[in-house]
Amino acid sequence: MEYPKDLRREFPGVYDRAYEQMKKFRHVRDIMTPRVVTITEDKTMADAARAMGEKHIGSLVVEADAKPKGIVTERDLLSGILALRRDPAKAKVGEAMSWPLLTIPPDTPIKEAAKIMMKRKGRLGVMEKVKLIGIVSASDFIRSLPDVPETLVKVEDYMTPEVVIVDEATTVADIAVTMGKERIGSVIVSSNEKPKGIFTERDLLTTFLKEGKSLEAPVKDYASTPLIVAPAWISVYEAAYIMADRHIRRLPLMEEDEMVGIITARDLVEAYAK
Questions:
Q1: Which residue of 73, 130, 136, 147 is most buried, as measured by CB atoms within 10 A?
Q2: For the residues 218-227, what does the mean pLDDT come to?
Q3: What kind of fold does domain 28-137 have according to CATH?
Q4: Residues of the chain above pLDDT 70, percent
């Protein structure tokens, strides 16, 4: 396991510059991902999985008549297809997508957008007049959470205390079913009953579904290591900084040598939206 450095102490100049940059983010336009990747509802979920894996993204906007109709995500793939042991090559995007696509204007304040995201529980499309110009996900928010009272609360108030841990010999197919049924985006992978790494829905997309690899392989060689962890007493703002700096969306939390929970990008947005 690896504890991230205290960035404020190690690199105060970098930290201060990052903070000043983050203070500039005021509206959705400033934090959205402008690259919108689309798919049509007649394509298969295998097609969708390959597209998300190749682009290293977690969702595709579903178009109909050249207009945004809905959205299909890696979670839809897990819960609606793999958890039910359905063949992604035989399931259509239109069967698994969420619709209609919820959209907001680009000048929406990020605080308001965070509240909308938590209420509607999904990614937001950014619409300017009749054109879709971007997508906002929880990961976009954590790169811009301001140092305000809402984000100074401790992560332990928002963490998920139940952490799913699997042995490294567990197959990826079984893990996909577990993540889909439990509606979670990751599992901790252990070796000799000690946490070793993490396997996420993004790993499933980019390493397996994109390449057409068999899911019957043990997860041992496919978990992300070393496992990055943090103390459970850090603030929401500090957790967001660590996650943005390390390009991760999930952060296991420790008290001494015991893992007591996990915080996700979505949890951090929820804290900010309060």
A1: 136
A2: 93
A3: CBS-domain (3.10.580)
A4: 90
